[in-house]
Design a protein that fits this description.
alpha/beta; Chitinase A, domain 3; 5-stranded mixed beta sheet; two-stranded parallel ribbon; 22% helix; 25% strand; globular
Length: 153
């Protein structure tokens, strides 16, 4: 068991596991956070916090099992006990009926950068924390990751 050694402004930050993110996803995430800062300050702040603490690597060095844009991820939401499989996408591609979840949603933002087996305590819209646990990640095919502008939202 490890304990957090850095003091944080928000106690929940100490409960967040290490993240790994491709340079491309990091760039998109920062641009998206800036684009939505006025409309959705909570998600924008959370995205920037995640971007700031992520280890950023070239896309070709991102190992299998890391949740990235375009990935299909099976996770458990401890609040409901349900297992769900979703694809993490840019906002313009989101379609809940097709299980395509935007990275700008709280669930999408919380899953990005996690690896199989990791859990994160992540806020809900009403401020409570819920634990999301990644069970399995299937990497997206290259044609599934859109080359859409980073500042969509």
């Amino acid at each position: 068991m490890t304990t957090a050694t850095a003091a944080t402004a928000e106690p929940a930050a100490a409960l967040r596991p290490p993240l790994l993110m491709s340079e491309a996803d990091h760039t998109r995430l920062v641009a998206l956070a800036g684009a939505i800062a006025r409309r959705n300050p909570l998600v924008a702040r959370l995205l920037m916090e995640e971007a700031d603490r992520a280890e950023v690597v070239p896309a070709e060095e991102l190992p299998a099992g890391v949740v990235a844009l375009g990935s299909r991820v099976e996770f458990i939401d401890a609040a409901t006990g349900e297992s769900r499989t979703v694809q993490l996408v840019l906002p313009g591609e989101a379609d809940i009926a097709q299980a395509r979840v935007s990275v700008l949603s709280l669930v999408g933002a919380g899953l990005l950068g996690l690896t199989e087996g990791q859990s994160i305590d992540w806020p809900t819209q009403d401020g409570r924390l819920r634990r999301l646990t990644v069970r399995r990640v299937v990497e997206a095919a290259p044609n599934e990751v859109a080359a859409a502008p980073a500042a969509e939202g």
